[in-house]
Amino acid sequence: MSVFTILFVSDLCGKAGRQAAAHMIKPLREKYNVDYVICNVENAAGGFGITPEMSRKAYSYGIDMQTSGNHIWDRYEIVPYLKTNPKLLRPANFPHGVPGFGYFIDEVNGVKIATVNLMGRTYMKDIDCPFFTADKIIAHVSQETNLIFVDMHAEATSEKQAMLYYLDGDVSAIVGTHTHIQTADEHVSPNGTAYISDAGMTGPYDSIIGMEKEPSLQRFITGMPKRFTTATGDVRLAGVLIKVDSESGKAISIERIILNFDIDTFKPEDITGIKKSDDETNNDETECEDQDSEDEIVEE
Ligand code: FE2
After folding, report:
1. What is the pLDDT of residues 166-220, one digit of tens each?
2. Is 23 a catalytic residue?
3. Which of 66, 79, 90, 271 has its CA 20 to 30 A from that of 54?
4. What is the CA(36)–ligand 1 centre distance, in A?
């Protein structure tokens, strides 16, 4: 049996999330001997979408594949980028003709891995059926590989669990995203599908799902739209580590990850236990720094 290790880094939120990713993913790759890193980046730009520059830069953090969700359209400049960059996915069940790609088959050291991005419809946009869309894509990609990872971006836990029941044994993993709150229900089904209802958020936890608390609270109290900015305090990286038999595509294990990150004190050896020179470890998140000044967006 050949073990293929996937690190999924969940919803990268704002500058704090990008900084955590920039500093922590490479040491995590090293520590866990990770073959492939998938990250949901739909909140990278101040919580609302991602810019082409941020998407390009994410590869330098050690991310191989990027998924998204309902916020993928928030930065209009991402639309032409999506058409030519199939390693940044938008949900596959947007209607026919929508720009971008909903799945991608990659190859790592001779092993093919398919990543599929789906979006739920409960309390979300009424787009095409994620279940029937999954059928079509899995019938297609399974001709090339048994190693299939699904990011199920959805609000309702029930819809995510329904997707597990629907695809159980047909895919290697179904990882829920969108709510930003990590759930404690990770498990591998008897049919070999790893599952978690939500992998959490990589970003500021002194917040309301990544945003400054006061505007969010006022929106609930008053019912009025408020200008949101990403929070900055108590930054953590969250996600799951999944081991899969690369031949059968069956999951072996799934483990939750949630790690504190303080940019002023973080050292890669906190993760790897191996001290390196500053030159090797310096990976400041500077190029996209200014873009959070544009991140104040009035929520719909
Ligand atoms: Fe979302």
Report:
1. 999 999 999 999 999 999 999 999 999 999 999 999 999 999 999 999 999 999 9
2. no
3. 271
4. 22
Whether the Cβ atoms of residue 281 and residue 36 lie closer than 8 Å to each other: no
Catalytic residue among 71, 153, 178, 180: 71
Neighbours of 97 (CB within 10 A): 5
**Cβ proximity of 8 and 194 under 8 Å:** no
Nearest in space to 93 (alpha carbons), one of 64, 116, 122: 116
Instruction: Tell me the per-residue pLDDT of 38-48, one tens digit each, with 9 for 90 and over.
Output: 999 999 999 99
273 burial via Cβ count (<10 Å: 0-12, 13-18, 19+): exposed
CATH of the domain at 226: 3.60.21.10
Whether pTM exceeds 0.70? yes
**Cross-strand partners of 298:** 227
Distance 281 CA to ligand 1 centre (A): 31
Count of domains in the chain?
1
DSSP state of 187: E
Full domain range(s) for residue 26: 3-299
**Ligand 1 centroid to residue 88 C-alpha, Å:** 15
Report the distance separating Cα 44 and Cα 230, nearest Å. 10
Complete DSSP assignment for 3-27? EEEEEEEP-BBHHHHHHHHHHHHHH
Report the b/e string of 179-218 with b at 16+ CB within 10 A: bbebeeebebbeebbbbbbbbbbbbbbebbbbbbeebbee
